[in-house]
Amino acid sequence: MSDECFRWRTALHEWLDGTADAELAALVRAHWRTCPDCQRLAAEWQTVAELLAEMLPAPAPSAFERRWRQRRQAIAASSVSWHGIAAAWAMTLIGLISLTVWFGWSLTGVMRNLSHWWRLAEGVPTLPAELFRNLWNWLTRWV
C-alpha cells in the first residue's frame, strides 16, 4: 500500500459507508478505480460489514410479538390485587393465633422457655462420638 492509499483510507471508509459528500465520493471513487490495494481493502471491509450484518439479531416474527403481548395481558388480568394478598395474610395470622390458643401455648411461656431451649441447643454434641455416647446413655436409661 502506498502513502497515497494511507491518506485515502479514512475517506474510503466514509465512501463505503455512504457518509461521504459528493465531491469526496468522486475523488475516492477515482482513486479506488486505479488502485488494486484499495480495491482489495474495500472488498475486505465490505465482507466484514456483511458478516457483521448477519450477526445482528433478527427481529422477532410478528406472530411471536402478538402471542407475547397476549400472554402479558393475560397475566396482568389474572394478577391478584393487594387486597386479596392482605386478606390471605390476615387469615393466616388469625389461624396461627387460633392454633396457639387452641393448644394452650402462650407467647409468654415460649419466651420463658426460650432460655431453656438456648441452653439445650448449646449442649448439643457436635462430634459423632459424643452424639453416640449421649444416645447410648439415653437408651440405657430406660432399661
UniProtKB/TrEMBL annotation:
Keywords: Membrane, Transmembrane, Transmembrane helix. InterPro entries: Anti_sigma_zinc_sf (IPR041916), Znf_put (IPR027383). The keyword Membrane applies. It comes from the Bacteria. Pfam families: zf-HC2. The chain crosses the membrane at residues 74-105. Residues 5-39 form the Putative zinc-finger domain. This is Putative zinc-finger domain-containing protein. It comes from Candidatus Fervidibacter japonicus.
